[in-house]
Amino acid sequence: MATHGRRGAPGLAQRMRGNEWRVLGLLAPYVLEYKWRVAVALGCLIVAKLANVAVPLVMKQVVDGLDARVQAVAVPFALLAAYGLLRFSTTLFGELRDVVFIRVTQRAIRRVALGVFRHLHSLSLRFHLERQTGGMTRDIERGTRGISTLLSYLLFSIIPVILEFSLVAGVLLTKFDWRFAAVTFGAVIVYIAFTVSVTEWRMEIRRRANELDSRANTRAIDSLLNYETVKYFGNEEFEARRYDEQLTKYESAATKNEASLGLLNIGQSLIIALAVTALMVLAAQGVAGGSLTLGDLVLVNGLLIQLYIPLNFLGMVYREIKQALLDLDRMFGLLTEHREIEDREGAVPLPPGSLAVSFSGVDFSYEKARQILFGISFDIPAGHRVAAVGHSGSGKSTLARLLYRFYDVSVGSIRVNGIDVRDVEQKSLRAAIGIVPQDTVLFNDTILYNIRYGRPEASDEEVVEAARAAHIHDFVSSLPNQYQTQVGERGLKLSGGEKQRVAIARALLKNPRILIFDEATSALDSRAEKAIQAELERIAQGRTTLVIAHRLSTIMDADQILVLNRGRIVERGTHQQLLELKGEYARMWALQRQAAEARAVLEEAAAD
Predict the structure, then answer these.
(1) Is 114 exposed, middle or buried (0-12, 13-18, 19+ CB in 10 A)?
(2) CATH number of the domain at 5-335, please?
(3) DSSP strand pairing (385-390 vs 544-549)
(4) pTM of whole model > 0.70?
């Protein structure tokens, strides 16, 4: 089993340290989709750098032309015009490069983010139960931002520095003696070695800061998602302290990170200052000795400024590239998460028409040390209704998850129309099943959106019809914004019963061939439950239905009732047959009848 959730990403980062550059290979296909744009952008880059290096060459000619010793008879307007044109060309082609390349960057960001998003939806329920949402979303956010950083700095900072260094080196070697090139090359080598070594040391500090930032974000989001629980127990300060613990650790790491940056900048500036001073001394000596002109001094100064200004940012560029690689590595790490549930080769769609379901000798464990189901076998003939009842933790809801193939069985098989669900296309299987879950979580959108989610192409009239069938239309119509009412984060603006009715409407709109009611009326009061129950029985007619219930009164008419206890079927039969057995079901029925009678007495007393 692959490592899951946020635990998988740090583990991958540990394995990838020192090998982050392999991310470039993963990113390359997304960039090369627009080969011609990349080529044009690089062409603009080359022209801009050629113009940039030509500027001090022209300036040398201008200065020498204005030197009184040369006895120029006129101001060299042509050279000045060329100087201005070259200056403009440097900016022009630099901007054109960005305009041409921006499509490549944004398309790469879009495709990578979409690929990660799709992959996350393809992972098993196990992964999503173990993930830490806050940290994972921060990894994705930093990763997509890292694409832009990586492409920008790698193509438009590293390559230009290499190109410009080559051009400057060529000019120094052809126009000046070897000492100029030697000082320049030596300074660049020392500069790069110092920058790389210090940046590698700083990366550990930066990596630690990012880890702590993700943890703090996870803590904040988890606390806010559980706002009501925090309030129930008055634990605002407790949550603030826990959040501040993470922020304090991040503060310390971030401070070390910035202090180390200062050290890097000081060292870089010292190396550049020493090199520039040495070169200017050599140039000044040449001018004083008559071997060089004043224009040559200006040329050396201009070349060094053009070389060392971008080189001065090399530490920042290298740091940002390495950080972008790490961020991308974490995001691409999500793509390496194992798809626990995948379509087999040759998987087939479900046939049209009614569907029968069969569980045969099913064992299942969420974890090896804790088995949930033991030898579960039962059939749901096409169009029939089977109910599963039992105490909490008996494995009832696991039946629905296995039928949906959120997990694969450990032993045995689940078949639909005689086909093992592992041989069925997941898309086809899930399209045939509709579920009303016990815990309904809605999207932070409108009621209309949440009902229509059952069949996105449905018309407004079909949505309203489903809402009527779920007995929620009158409630929605009474709201100021009616179907455009926002339900809030996870549907928290609606009551439990209202959310459950939206879930029922959504399942009805899907019009599935197999229905699963997982405690579908658990959040409704007795009166609402009776109305909804009648509607559920109506829509279940002709559909293969699995009802997972706690209230036995809702499944009295089921064709077969399964009584589960600790993952095993201990009784099965119709309602009447199970009562006659006077076993587990009969005891549960007696207890619920007593509770219902007591509730009725209380309601009658309250009414009086």
Answers:
(1) exposed
(2) 1.20.1560.10
(3) parallel
(4) no
